[in-house]
Amino acid sequence: MGKTRVLVVDDSVVMRRIISEAIACEAVEVVGTAANGRIALQKIEQVHPDVVTLDIEMPEMDGLDVLKRLRETHPSLRVIVFSSLTESAAEVTLKALASGAADYDTKPTSAGGATDAVRAVRESLLPKLIALATSSKRRPVASASALKATDPIATRPPASALKAADPSGAPRARVSGFPRIHRPVDIVAIGASTGGPNALADVFRDLPKLAVPIVVSQHMPPMFTRMLAERLNAASACEVREAIDGDVLAPGLALIAPGDFHMLLRRDGVRVVVSLGHGLPENSVRPSVDPMLRSAVEVYGAGILTVILTGMGQDGLRGCEVVHSAGGQILAQDEATSVVWGMPGFVVRAGLADAVVPVGQVAFEIDRRVLRCRTGDGTAPNPPWSPP
């Protein structure tokens, strides 16, 4: 496989230089730069990049307009958008992801010098470029939400208007293997990274209000996770919000780990509550899926249903090993609908997944597995599991 060809698009000459210097290596070639969206569209036709790094706020044609054009002309071209760590930038970044961007990165702060900026961009951006280019050469973009002409979260009907899938009559998801069900599902724990915001939008759009709580660890920085929770909540039958320390888990409530915090679960009498912590990053990320899963197993034992969605790296693998050993269930998103089949791919190759499903079937499969072992009123037929 040859070098990954990258086009750098930013209206700042300083940022173009920083990004170009940061990513140039034996595996990546910067084939061009552009100062605005119009020039970028022309350069794409000339240099045929594998990946584009795209600034959002630019004169003449901004990043969102570029993404709109690329959906029509180059739907499989991978784009990483650049944004700052501000509330308005987080909102625009989520719109960009919904409009077709495969991933995002945050611009380095001005606190450090040029050397620090180059190092920060290299450490964060370079692995994403290589992972996206590799997956792009292996197959075209398959996420339906990434190809929507409009924001897939803002324009979809609320999940409350959708009927829950009938386990006896609805089309069955294509799964590998059979679930090892030893006890009812008491909690759903979801992990995601690259491509996760759109995958989560697909899941929560179709998911009915469940009789169990949901916890989510998505690799995103502060402010981004709150914005994500708000956008998911607007289109879901479940209540979705960013977790706060001491939150009590409840049926139909989905809590998203806030950026820069690990989300752990613990018992408090008969309740299960959230503990947020600044522990060391795991798998180079915080929040991390692994500590969330370990703590969920300590509380719920085999009553956990884990879902590993699209993402780069192998966060969630060790946690899934614990879930599997405890007798819990594990779903993994399939390769065809994953932006990057890293996290779910590691779980599948380790033989831990009870089912491998396309993202459009994940909500149905969650609902089916929660319903099949619960009584008609949604309560567990057996008392909740408690650790010895």
Structure description:
The chain is of the alpha/beta class and about 400 residues long. It folds into 2 domains: about 5-140, Response regulator (Rossmann fold, 3-Layer(aba) Sandwich), CATH 3.40.50.2300; about 160-370, Rossmann fold (3-Layer(aba) Sandwich), CATH 3.40.50.180. The chain contains 11 helices and 14 strands. It has a 7-stranded parallel beta sheet, sandwiched between helices. The protein has a 5-stranded parallel beta sheet with strand order 2-1-3-4-5, with helices on both faces. Strand 12, helix 9 (about 315-325) and strand 13 form a beta-alpha-beta unit. Helix 1 packs across helix 5. The termini are far apart. Mean pLDDT is about 85; it is low at about 140-180 and about 375-388.
Q: Going by CATH, what is the homologous superfamily of the largest domain?
A: Methylesterase CheB, C-terminal domain
CATH fold title of the largest domain? Rossmann fold
Q: Tell me the CATH architecture of the largest domain.
A: 3-Layer(aba) Sandwich
Q: How many individual domains?
A: 2
End-to-end C-alpha gap = 52 Å
CATH class placement of the largest domain = Alpha Beta
Radius of gyration, whole Å = 21 Å
Give helix % range.
25-40%
Largest sheet, in brief, is: 7 strands, parallel
Given helix and strand content, the structural type is alpha/beta
The side-by-side strand order for the widest beta sheet comes to: 8-9-7-6-12-13-14
Model regions low in confidence, pLDDT < 50 over at least 5 residues? 140-179, 376-388
Strand content: 15-25%
Shape: elongated
**H/E element string?**
EHEHEHEHEHEHEHEEEEHEHEHEH
Q: What's the mean pLDDT score?
A: 86
Work out the number of β strands. 14
| DSSP summary: helix tally | 11
